[in-house]
Amino acid sequence: METDHAVVTGDARELSLPADSVDLVVTSPPYPMIEMWDDIFAALDPAIGDALDADDGQRAFEAMHDVLDVVWEQLQRVLVEGGIAAINVGDATRTLDRFRQYPNAGEITRRMVDYGFDPLPDIVWRKPANSGAKFMGSGMVPPNAYPTLEHESILLFRNGPRRSFPPGDETRYESAYFWEERNQWFSDLWEMTGTPQGLDAGLRERSGAFPVEVPLRLIRMFSIYGDTVLDPFWGTGTTTLAAMLAGRDSVGYERDPDLRAAFDDRIEGLPDRSRQRATRRLERHREWVNERQDSGEELGYENDHYDTPVRTKQERNLRLYAVESVAETDEGYTVTHEPIENLE
């Protein structure tokens, strides 16, 4: 299997992709009203800087979302019917004229619905800070303290009716997940801490990259092998890295060429890391099988590729792939993938 990964240095508000060319969107945009993004938003619309200077938080909030809105409007055109858009965003707390929370998740949901997307149940991504100073407000004295904000939202939207596939579609069933993975992944609460991205401080200040486990899980949940995944806010390329690991094509848009140049460091040694991940995934399933069998439970089916019991017949043709090689191209990268063979 071979996948292609294009990285476009450009503005996602001017997506040049054909209609119906993307199967899944996974992205984490700059969060409005988070101070680290102020300069970027103000450069795109000077009225945002004016609103911030005037301590007019609501006006700045709405103008920042107007900038993002140009991207959301295009997603319906490029997404296939039934394609999913997964948008990771956090609300913001900030003091301008007064302290308040700015509901980014709610604002994006409202705007996506206006463009005809159907909202699906979202996921709360909880990222505990484990800081003794995280509680804010008046200490032990009521009533002016407020809860700490330790979660973000993964918003899910479908572009029209569900995707349809031919009965018994081989690629779809190869792309299946294990029963126990389904039970974990499709929970509405994910608890994961962020992971170091290995970037220098200057680049880190210009990117809000999320850990690869987030887009990797979303890609496996909502696409099949060979699908195309779009990230219009590419950042440090985490979605592309996840698409490489998952055996999907990808397209990313990024305005900052320095971030694009730094991506090569992230894919160094990717074949070995990919094989370790795929192997560990199969090992975890076998550990789960052993636990079920030790408790006397009988699993009714056998996977065709790995000589391991599975819970459902939809898992019988599940097959894991690992990155074999990565080659740079004029547009981005081409990745070859080889199936993981049975492990003794």
Overview of this structure, please?
This protein has helices at residues 38-44, 46-53, 57-78, 104-114, 170-174, 179-185, 201-204, 213-222, 238-246, 257-266, 270-294, and strands spanning 2-9, 22-27, 79-89, 92-95, 99-102, 118-126, 151-158, 189-191, 228-231, 249-254, 301-302, 309-310, 321-328, 332-339. It is of the alpha/beta class and 344 residues long. It has two domains: 2-271, 3-Layer(aba) Sandwich (Rossmann fold), CATH 3.40.50; 272-339, no CATH class. Strands 8-6-7-3-2-9-10-1-14-13 form a ten-stranded mixed beta sheet, with helices on both faces. The chain has a two-stranded antiparallel sheet with strand order 4-5. The protein has a two-stranded antiparallel ribbon with strand order 11-12. Helix 1 (38-44) crosses helix 2 (46-53), helix 3 packs across helix 4 and helix 8 (213-222) crosses helix 9. The longest helix has 25 residues, at 270-294. It starts with a strand and ends in a 5-residue tail after the last strand. Mean pLDDT is 91; it is low at 195-207.
The first-level CATH class name of the largest domain: Alpha Beta
CATH topology type of the largest domain: Rossmann fold
Low-confidence stretches: 195-207
- Rounded mean pLDDT is 91
Largest sheet: 10 strands, mixed
* Basic shape: globular
Q: What's the CATH architecture of the largest domain?
A: 3-Layer(aba) Sandwich
CATH superfamily of the largest domain: Vaccinia Virus protein VP39
Q: Estimate nothing, just give the exact number of structural domains.
A: 2
Count every helix, treating DSSP H or I runs of 4 or more residues as helices: 11
Spatially, the strands of the biggest sheet line up as: 8-6-7-3-2-9-10-1-14-13
What would you call the structural class? alpha/beta
Strand-residue proportion: 15-25%
> What is the percent of helical residues?
25-40%
Alpha-carbon distance between the two ends: 24 Å
Compressed to H and E, one letter per element, the order equals: EEHHHEEEHEEHHEHHEHEHHEEEE
